[in-house]
């Protein structure tokens, strides 16, 4: 008896953390006007393998199988392709369609300590707007979400695929090596300048071109866009980033964003601004996304502009747990009501029910245990308050309230009980 | 491009309803001390086909396939078998283990208007308690949950498998026909007395036995247990129901429950009290469950008593929609901020962001539309408030607030804006 390889259970302590984080993220998404969407776990292979929607790397890891009726089915690989399908199937949706989606995805890849075959993603996307305000809003929402979760030292790194395209043109990279070049550029933080240069040359990019690329992608500082502008011919990508930054300023969003000309992102379908957040160096990205103005057209037959971002919730949770940004508890019961002896057990039922009817999470013994065993159980779940029901106190309609952290006990009238929590 | 047969998307209007109902259910479950559990969508065939866990009827509908590694995998069929596996895999869990679980399940069955292959269930179960208090608590929680959702005229129907066993013994039904007899008994409400008699005789139950069964299962009224007691020899099941009712009285739970001796429930693994709620006659059950003291032992090797119940959330949602018990809305944005012309668009960004920073769901135009088109969009999503930003008002740091239901407009200082929502 075991879980399937690459999957895991979330016992209450883990599930409570996950729920807490999901609820807080949802609240921020909704204040930004994103509405929930849910799509099925099952998609047809036809949908998932739509040419240009994902590319080879995605297809390689798609969790697919033949169903009992002989159809090739794939489990939801990400939340972007299902969104494109929804847009195609619902041509009368009011645009822009701003949706968030928080659902599991499945990938049939190698399994490792932090690599699962079933894991949770949260995406926000704006479909049907080609203005950079939409991208600025996505970035503002990412900043608000991470801030709400308690992250402080993070930056949303920004770049634009159009800048990278202008760069490879300026450097003279041949058309067929462009995507590969983007992938290598993206590794700058991970493998350093020498590493990037070596890989570029290894892929047959000329020494001169490699040098031009490297000089460009390592431009830093306040005037990065102005400096970049001087080197490349096509300025559209730079113009778009300038607009985004200007919109973010109008929104008075905290400047937790920066231009990073080495950011490229792996997916093929990005067409404009791209975004990424690293929680800290080394750990990899916790949020990533960008504009994809052509992808939905592959499904709907006509181009619909879109931009959006994906949060790797489980990686975010790992970071938050490591940094003690979130409390781990086995139960969110607030009060455990114990019976001193069997004579008062009926009264315990009544008292528990009074608490519950007042929306106070309350529990009691279901195993006819002794007083000390009842206290042990409450303790094992980390329940902070215990109400002790004894015959003597009941004569004056009272109970004892014990705070489990200090051990302090006070007497409490049953009528005043609800007010204490 | 379509959804896979038997599955469907939940666009925002539907997803908002589902979320609202899930949140309200969760809140009640948590006040009753149930903690969340999540299990993977994928289970090994070995787990799902454990003998006695489900029975043939379940295996027939299990959504199973061979994965890319040649393993036989099944999608989660229900939430009870995964719970049993979790208990077996975690022998050190504090008992009782009270968990709720709200997740999708998949069944490869016939597809019809209201029959899907992927649908949502919500279960609460108490594992590790053999006292009838646990069953009473489950019933109390069901009553609180349905009351919270706005249901008024419902009854939790109660019976006990031990009573049914005593009945078939008293009627002289041969051992090998017992399960089949239970299934026919369960149809009393659906097919009536004549129907039940006909089916029993059709299955080879004697006329005399059928008569005895029918007379017993149609006993009604206040003294149903007392009347039943006189007929059958083994009184344990009746004793248990009396205890449950007594506990519910101690809890002062509204008497939205009743004994129904014709209730049998389909699953093989029930061993004691069984529960069911019909939203109304004809529509079928929306909640069902019971005690299963032997099932977990099939996984863990030693018996662990358990009792619990399953809510068919999607059926509950259907009923609530039909009866207009829930508001349908396409968006939960509270305020849409419109720009009178392009000059004020930057100010719109600032105003929207003030609202969002104060947790007020707010949105604005992302398509550079005219004033009237902006209003049309807000209207199409049913957003109740519109803030109109115009140059003249901005001179005095004001905006106009328009209530979309009445069309009434008032002037508002930007500094006082947040207080208005």
Provide the structure class of chain A. alpha+beta
Overall tally of domains of chain A = 2
Mean pLDDT of chain A: 94
Query: In CATH's first tier, which class of the largest domain in chain A applies?
Result: Alpha Beta
* Tertiary shape of chain A: elongated
- In oligomeric terms, what are we looking at? homodimer
Could you estimate the helical fraction of the residues of chain A in percent? 25-40%
Stretches of chain A where pLDDT is under 50 for at least 5 consecutive residues are none
Number of helices of chain A: 16
- Give the N-to-C terminal Cα separation of chain A: 42 Å
Could you tell me the radius of gyration of chain A in angstroms?
27 Å
- Portion in beta strands of chain A: 15-25%
Which CATH-level-2 architecture of the largest domain in chain A?
2-Layer Sandwich
CATH homology superfamily name of the largest domain in chain A: Bira Bifunctional Protein, Domain 2
What does this structure look like?
Two copies of one chain form a homodimer. Chain A has 421 residues and is α+β, with helices and mostly antiparallel strands. Chain A has two domains: 12-322, BirA Bifunctional Protein, domain 2, CATH 3.30.930; 335-420, Anticodon-binding domain (Rossmann fold, 3-Layer(aba) Sandwich), CATH 3.40.50.800. Chain A is built from 16 helices and 16 strands. Chain A has an eight-stranded mixed beta sheet with strand order 1-5-6-11-10-9-7-8. In chain A, strand 3 (64-66) and strand 4 (72-75) form a beta hairpin. In chain A, helix 1 (12-31) runs antiparallel to helix 5 (132-148). Chain A starts with 11 loop residues before the first helix and ends in an 8-residue tail after the last strand. Chains A and B meet through helix 1, strand 1, strand 2, strand 3 and helix 4 of A and helix 1, strand 1, strand 2, strand 3 and helix 4 of B.
């Amino acid at each position: 008896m075991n879980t399937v390889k690459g999957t895991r259970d979330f016992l209450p302590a883990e599930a409570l953390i996950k729920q807490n984080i999901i609820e807080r993220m949802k609240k921020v998404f909704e204040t930004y006007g994103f509405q929930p969407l849910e799509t099925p776990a099952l998609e047809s292979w036809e949908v998932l393998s739509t040419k240009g929607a994902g590319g080879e790397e995605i297809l390689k890891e798609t969790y697919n199988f033949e169903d009992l009726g002989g159809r090739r089915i794939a489990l939801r690989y990400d939340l972007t392709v299902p969104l494109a399908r929804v847009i195609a199937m619902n041509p009368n949706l009011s645009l822009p369609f701003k949706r968030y989606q928080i659902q599991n995805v499945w990938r049939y890849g190698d399994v490792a300590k932090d690599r699962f075959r079933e894991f949770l993603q949260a995406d926000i996307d704006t479909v049907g707007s080609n203005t950079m305000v939409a991208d600025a809003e996505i970035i503002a929402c990412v900043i608000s979400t991470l801030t709400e979760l308690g992250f402080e030292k993070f930056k949303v790194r920004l770049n634009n695929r159009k800048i990278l395209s202008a760069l490879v043109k300026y450097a003279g990279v041949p058309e067929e090596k462009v995507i590969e070049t983007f992938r290598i550029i993206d590794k700058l933080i991970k493998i350093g300048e020498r590493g990037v240069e070596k890989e570029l040359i290894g892929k047959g990019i000329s020494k001169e071109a490699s040098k031009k690329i490297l000089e460009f992608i390592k431009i830093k500082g306040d005037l990065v866009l102005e400096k970049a502008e001087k080197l490349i011919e096509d300025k559209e990508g730079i113009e778009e980033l300038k607009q985004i930054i200007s919109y973010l300023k109008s929104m008075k969003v905290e400047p937790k964003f920066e231009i990073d000309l080495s950011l490229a992102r792996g997916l093929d379908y990005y067409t404009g601004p791209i975004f990424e957040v690293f929680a800290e160096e080394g750990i990899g990205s916790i949020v990533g996304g960008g504009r994809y103005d052509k992808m939905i057209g592959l499904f709907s037959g006509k181009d619909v502009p879109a931009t959006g971002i994906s949060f790797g919730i489980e990686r975010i949770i790992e970071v938050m747990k490591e940094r003690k940004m979130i409390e781990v508890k086995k139960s969110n019961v607030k009060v455990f009501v114990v019976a001193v002896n069997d004579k008062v057990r009926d009264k315990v039922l009544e008292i528990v029910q009074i608490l519950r009817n007042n929306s106070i999470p309350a529990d009691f013994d279901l195993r006819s245990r002794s007083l000390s065993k009842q206290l042990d159980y409450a303790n094992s779940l980390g329940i902070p308050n215990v109400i002790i029901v004894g015959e003597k106190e009941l004569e004056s309609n009272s109970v004892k309230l014990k705070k489990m952290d200090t051990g302090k006990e006070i007497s409490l009238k049953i009528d005043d009980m609800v007010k204490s929590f």
